[in-house]
Amino acid sequence: MIQKLLFLFALAFTATSCQFTETMVMNEDGSGTMTVEVNMNEMMAFGGAAVTDSMEVKMDTIVYMKQFLEEKKDSISKLSAIEQEKLKKLENFNIHIIMNSETSEMVYDISTKFKNISEANDILNGLEQASNLMPNMDSNSQETKKEEDSPEIIGVNYSFKKGTFKRDAYIKDKKMHQQQVDSMKQAEAFMGGSNYTLNYTFPKKIKKTSNPEATFSEDKKTVSIQAPFIEYFNNPDLLDLEVELEN
User: So what's the pLDDT on residue 8?
Assistant: First the structure.
């Protein structure tokens, strides 16, 4: 099962019209939850179920990363120190996958609970690291990948200080990013319907935001922003956001 799940992680970045949704709910004390969901229902509807090696698939599974990493600790010990550190950053994340060939559903998400929003800084990278590193853990091979084999391309820093929330995306590896941008040009026609959406809910009303395209809920506590996935990947600053809350 885990191999199929990990295969979907890699597939998500090349599939037709995937919908990416980043959801945060923050509490009064600054704690909360962060989830990144990848919805691949459209791919399933157009025959994507074939990748599951079965005509009928029904799955609703949660992978608790802390438990998973403990079970694989012997294999992890054979990895490089750099890769072990990357995996350790995933231990507070959980992965949930739903697949149903009858209803054409294929949705998975990675989520974490945080005491401070900065603890969610690795959540986007978690998708990459899960697919890049965990297959290596599942094998019994003592060979380890080089650091260059699993580059971190885009990172996001979250912060919340004195009533102001900030989301700052940045490119970690400019050379690899440009290579990915160039390779994705061939897929732009197929991924034209893919979007990346932010939905952030705060404990107080929102006073103002830095993005003029933002929309708000009736109670002014939730802000939403959406951008085409290709445009966001090409320019991560597109979804940078600063939100000031009312006192």
Answer: 47
Burial class for 170, CB neighbours closer than 10 Å (0-12, 13-18, 19+): exposed
CA atoms of 122 and 110, how far apart (whole Å): 11
> Which residue did the predictor score with more confidence, 35 or 180?
35
Q: How far is CA 209 from the centre of its chain?
A: 23
pTM value > 0.90: no
8 versus 68: which is more confidently predicted? 68
- In this predicted structure, the answer to whether residue 12 has a pLDDT above a threshold of 90 is no
| Alpha-carbon dihedral 225, 176, 36, 55, rounded to 10 degrees | 120
SS (H, E, C) 183-205: HHHHHCCCCCCCEEEEEEECCCC
Question: Is it the case that residue 159 has pLDDT exceeding 90?
Answer: yes
- The answer to whether 27 and 115 are in contact (CB under 8 A) is no
**Residue 153 · residue 171 · CB < 8 Å:** yes
Give yes or no for a contact between 198 and 68, defined as CB atoms under 8 angstroms apart.
no
Q: Using CA of residue 140, residue 141, residue 142, residue 143, what is the dihedral sign?
A: negative
- In sign, the C-alpha dihedral spanning 230, 224, 156, 40 is negative
Block residue for tokens 């599951």: 52
Distance CA 51, CA 60 (A): 17
Percent of the chain having pLDDT more than 90? 37
For residue 142, the SS3 value is coil
Confidence label for 189 from pLDDT (cuts 50, 70 and 90): low
